[in-house]
């Protein structure tokens, strides 16, 4: 398929645009990326998505497809050769759709307005202290303002929440504990080098 047959209207910084870009890459589909300029909407975008007037929009064979997850499913169905994106089992596929919808309908909107901790926040947030300790021990930033601004904002909101801040481990203490743990593991027979 020619690159000009597949176009994606979007913005490089949008996580919603990243979804179809990843799907297209998984399927090895060549496409033309049409960058939207921040603060303005191109005529092509307005014509291709007259209802929501939002990115992303995939144009395939001159026909527009809107909404990031709908686009990903479309890509998976149209370019079926290659790795499957959605699971083949109906139950697993339904679960994947459920969690994707949950992220879009509950998690992202919660990040935009008053933050209230939920089940998924607790499950993921309990690893946040160790993530920060790993950053410090390895001298790398896994979460920063440039690469992951949304994740960093969530992490800061989570760790400073009244229900969390008193039980959230200090990074320095975790780093020291990790060193002690590494020494302890080195004394165990299963961790010793052959």
Automatic annotation (TrEMBL):
One of its GO terms (cellular component) is cytosol. It is an enzyme of class 2 (transferase). One of its GO terms (molecular function) is glutathione transferase activity. InterPro entries: Glutathione-S-Trfase_C_sf, Glutathione_S-Trfase, Glutathione_S-Trfase_N, GST_C_Tau, Omega/Tau-like, Thioredoxin-like_sf. It is found in: Cytoplasm, Cytosol. CDD domains: GST_C_Tau, GST_N_Tau. Residues 4-83 form the GST N-terminal domain. Keywords: Cytoplasm, Transferase. One of its GO terms (biological process) is glutathione metabolic process. It holds the Pfam family GST_N. Its EC number is 2.5.1.18. It catalyses: RX + glutathione = an S-substituted glutathione + a halide anion + H(+). The keyword GTP-binding does not apply. Its main location: cytoplasm. PROSITE patterns: GST_NTER. Belongs to the GST superfamily. Tau family. Is involved in the conjugation of reduced glutathione to a wide number of exogenous and endogenous hydrophobic electrophiles. This is Glutathione S-transferase. It comes from Salix purpurea (Purple osier willow).
């Amino acid at each position: 398929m020619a690159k000009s047959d597949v176009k994606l209207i979007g913005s490089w910084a949008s996580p919603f645009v990243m979804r179809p870009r990843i799907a297209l890459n998984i399927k090895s589909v060549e496409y033309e990326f049409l960058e939207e300029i921040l603060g303005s909407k191109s005529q092509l975008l307005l014509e291709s998505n007259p209802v929501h007037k939002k990115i992303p929009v995939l144009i395939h064979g001159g026909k527009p497809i809107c909404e990031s997850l709908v686009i990903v499913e479309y890509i998976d169905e149209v370019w079926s050769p290659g790795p499957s994106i959605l699971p083949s089992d109906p139950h697993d596929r339904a679960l994947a759709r459920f969690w994707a919808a949950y992220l879009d309908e509950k998690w992202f909107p919660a990040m935009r307005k008053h933050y209230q901790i939920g089940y998924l926040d607790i499950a993921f947030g309990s690893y946040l202290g160790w993530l920060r300790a790993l950053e410090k021990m390895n001298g790398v930033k896994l979460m920063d303002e440039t690469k992951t601004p949304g994740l960093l904002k969530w992490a800061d909101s989570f760790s400073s929440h009244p229900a969390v801040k008193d039980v959230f481990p200090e990074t320095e203490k975790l780093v020291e504990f990790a060193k002690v743990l590494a020494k302890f593991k080195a004394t165990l027979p299963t961790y010793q080098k052959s």
